[in-house]
Amino acid sequence: MGRSREFDENVVLQKAMELFWEQGYEKTSMNDLVEHMGIHRRSLYDTFGDKHTLFLKTIDCYDELIKNKIQAEILHAETTKQAIQFIFDFMIEGYEDKQWGCLIVNSATEMALRDKEVEEKTEEAFMQTEHFLAELVRKGQQTGEFSCDYDAELLAEILQNTLLGIRVLLRTSASKEKMHRIADFFVNLLNK
After folding, report:
1. Whereabouts does the entry annotate DNA binding, in residue ranges (predicted)?
2. How far apart are CA 152 and CA 173, in angstroms?
3. Which of 18, 141, 174, 186 would bridge with 169, disulfide CB 3.0–4.6 Å?
4. CATH 1.25.40.10: does it fit domain 60-190?
5. Do the Cβ atoms of 38 and 12 come closer than 8 Å?
């Protein structure tokens, strides 16, 4: 009879996610993971597989976590403009005071060119975000909040790229004030 796990798989997966998020894939060693996750190396391999498989699982975990947080907050927005402003503010201010940028963007810039699985996961996340943003823009256009001078999909592409740029800037010494100016300028462009 096998031993039961002495840890909560979701809790240790989140710990691994945070370590990869903060340090990146290449800089994170198996020893770092074992220590940070608080589990034995054998348990890590038995539960999550190798480092690469664990990393892919943490990308999925992060993607779900962020989507749930954003969608929950957007439900409370009174206007589409407030919803889009929240997305910018959320990205700029960080998640639970973590100032490590975005794990999806970090993973794409670190590994997508040389790792097909990471490329597929990050591209899928970017595409889903772009579709979600297009829905928001369309809603704003339908309610008369946003200008209809441009196609919602085109605006969503530009919005997505603005958000990607901000998420890259988060990993630099750029000021939050600068990022908020960029966000505010874009949101004002959407106005009718």
Report:
1. 29-48
2. 32
3. 174
4. no
5. yes
Predicted pLDDT at 57: 97
Residue that the structure tokens 């889903």 belong to:
128
Q: Give the pair of three-digit tokens for residue 144.
A: 């008369």
What tens digit of pLDDT does each residue of 97-123 get?
677 889 999 999 999 999 999 999 999
Half-sphere exposure at residue 80, Cβ-oriented, CA atoms within 13 angstroms? 21
Beta bridge partners of 146: 191
Tell me if residue 191 falls in helix, strand or coil: strand
Measure the CA–CA gap between 88 and 86, rounded to whole angstroms: 5
DSSP code for 147: -
Dihedral sign, CA of 92, 104, 30, 15?
positive
CA atoms within 13 A on the CB side of 16: 31
Contact 60, 107 (CB under 8 A): no
Is residue 83 a contact partner of residue 74, using CB atoms and an 8 Å limit? Answer: yes
- Amino acid making up residue 98: K
Query: And the tokens for 91?
Result: 């990205």
